[in-house]
Amino acid sequence: LLQTRFTSCQALAVRRDIDMSSSVIKLARDAIASQTRWREGDDSDTIEYETCPACYSHVSPRDKLEVMSGCYHRICFTCIRDCVS
User: Fold this and answer.
1) Half-sphere exposure of 32 toward its Cβ, with a 13 Å CA cutoff?
2) What is the pairing mode between strands 74-76 and 65-67?
3) pLDDT by residue (tens digit) across 16-38?
4) pTM above 0.70, yes or no
5) Does the keyword Metal-binding apply (predicted)?
6) In Å, how far are 4, 17, 19, 33, 52 from 75, measured between CA atoms?
């Protein structure tokens, strides 16, 4: 993953007045998606995995990531459950 090449990594909030359809936002989303999603298997039996951005665990489709309401961050069910309890 890209973040393993850095000595530190920090998430920054996006200003509310930025156009969410801008090319900069799209480029950032595509870059994040390329580092957090991958496929395994051959063409007939491909499984898409994701990395949870909260706990960095690898999540299979059966343990799919959920979208948090309001912020649209996708975190795994385990992290959601831990936040609630």
Assistant:
1) 12
2) antiparallel
3) 777 767 777 777 777 776 666 66
4) no
5) yes
6) 19, 25, 24, 13, 5
